[in-house]
Design brief:
This protein is α+β, with helices and mostly antiparallel strands. The protein contains 5 helices and 5 strands. It comes from mine drainage metagenome.
Length: about 130
């Protein structure tokens, strides 16, 4: 990770917990999360859907929180940091001039008992209970 940092190369990291399914992840280790966070490399997270279902991104997010990342930091790894790394200037934030896409939850989205109550995609309500 240090060489990646020295060369200022951003990284899209993931998926985690898919070792037997992905040949390219045969050297993956849960310790890489800690090394990545300590390195200072700019990174975002990915799920690799449809090969590894997007619902598994919650495992990845929780894993980063176990290593000390705050919820808002983890969420930015899937939103604003991802958009910035991909060079997409009008996504990833809820601000004027951006295409707002977000999910409103009835409770903490990291809780297994919470559920979406409203989904907004590119400024339009696409689901509401």
């Amino acid at each position: 990770f240090q060489r990646i940092k020295e060369n200022n190369i951003p990284m899209v990291y993931g998926p985690l917990d898919s070792l037997p399914y992905k040949v390219e992840l045969k050297h993956e280790s849960w310790r890489n999360t800690e090394y990545l966070m300590k390195s200072g490399v700019k990174f975002s997270m990915m799920s690799d859907h449809p090969v590894i279902l997007q619902r598994n991104i919650f495992y990845t997010m929780r894993h980063f929180m176990r290593f000390g990342m705050e919820k808002h930091e983890v969420i930015s790894k899937l939103t604003s940091d991802a958009a910035e790394i991909l060079g997409i200037s009008n996504l990833g934030r809820i601000e004027k001039g951006f295409l707002p896409s977000m999910i409103l939850w009835n409770d903490d989205p990291f809780s297994l008992t919470s559920h979406p109550i409203t989904v907004i995609g590119e400024g339009k309500i696409v689901y509401h209970t």
